[in-house]
Amino acid sequence: MTAPAGLRPEAPGMWRVLAVRYASRTGLRGQHFLGHDESSHEPHPTAYFVWVAVSADEVVLVDAGIAADRAAGIPGMTGLGSPVALLARVGIAPADVGWTVLTHLHYDHTGTVAELPATRYVVQQSEWDYWHGPWARRITRERWLCSDDDLAHLGGARGAGRLQLVDGDAEVLPGLSVHLVGGHTAGMQVVRLRTAAGSVVLASDASHFYENLETDRPAPILHCTTGVHGAFDRVRELADGPELIVPGHDPAVLDRYPELAGLPGSGIVSIA
Ligand SMILES: [Zn+2]
């Protein structure tokens, strides 16, 4: 799969990394920080991202967002388009995406899996087992956090040999590795990429916002509280600096990194 020329790093094993915002919503602080306090009822702007990593010869999508039709039905959500369709703005067609790393299997990270015809998925074994095991069925909240349609599609991909289950840490491609951190979900993983700026970590929902990590305060949707704190530590270890840790839902990502040349106001920024 060839990446668009403008994005392609020349050196082998090096990556360019983009964040692509596909939706936004104003939530409440109480939805994003564990433990009630006097600010819990205050509005809290929330962004929804997928991430794109490009090497000399590969295009990797990290998470698959929410399909446009489902986003349209979520109260308060403003969808900016299908995440996969937004990739066209940087010259990437769905068939160009050779790999898709799913950091976890919540619905807002798997929604366009059926729109990627040529991709191979990477999921942690423990994440897969959890959502196919007995517990997720018994917990009401879990049933709305996971899409049965997306799981069924991924099951088909697995049967066709297009889904790789990983147990722990693994280098998927030179300079791109996945790391099991848990906490938020049973098998939450983060992605580390070798870039010209150093090792970038796409934390996704291991830290929804910068503030979760900076104040050591988990988000309330979680599998294991101590696991979330452990994930905060691991993410810091893996990145070459705090500025290279990218949270999953923080609109501040769009302020902290430059927009791509020629795409002002697109919600697409260059992490490295
Ligand atoms: Zn999420």
Description of the structure:
There is one protein chain. With 272 residues, this protein is α/β, with parallel strands linked by helices. The protein has a single domain (16-270), classed as Metallo-beta-lactamase, Chain A (4-Layer Sandwich), CATH 3.60.15. 26% of the residues lie in helices and 27% in strands. The chain has helices spanning 29-32, 68-72, 83-86, 107-110, 125-132, 134-138, 140-145, 148-159, 210-214, 225-238, 253-256, and strands at residues 16-28, 43-54, 59-62, 77-79, 99-101, 120-124, 163-166, 170-173, 176-180, 189-195, 198-204, 245-247, 268-270. Strands 1, 2, 3, 4, 5, 6, 7 and 13 form an eight-stranded mixed β-sheet that branches. 48% of the residues are buried. The mean pLDDT is 95. The structure holds zinc ion (ZN).
Quick summary:
This protein has one domain: Ribonuclease Z/Hydroxyacylglutathione hydrolase-like (Metallo-beta-lactamase, Chain A), CATH 3.60.15.10.
Salient structural properties:
272 residues, alpha/beta, Metallo-beta-lactamase, Chain A, globular, binds zinc ion
Structural class: alpha/beta
CATH class: Alpha Beta
Cα separation of the termini: 21 Å
Order of helices and strands: EHEEHEHEHEHHHHEEEEEHHEHE
CATH architecture: 4-Layer Sandwich
Count helical runs: 11
Bound molecules: zinc ion
State the fourth-level CATH superfamily: Ribonuclease Z/Hydroxyacylglutathione hydrolase-like
Q: What helical percentage do the residues reach?
A: 25-40%
- What CATH calls the topology is Metallo-beta-lactamase, Chain A
Count of the separate structural domains: 1
Largest sheet: 8 strands, mixed
Strand content: 25-35%
Unreliable residue runs: none
Shape summary: globular
What is the total tally of β strands? 13
CA-based gyration radius: 17 Å
Mean pLDDT: 95
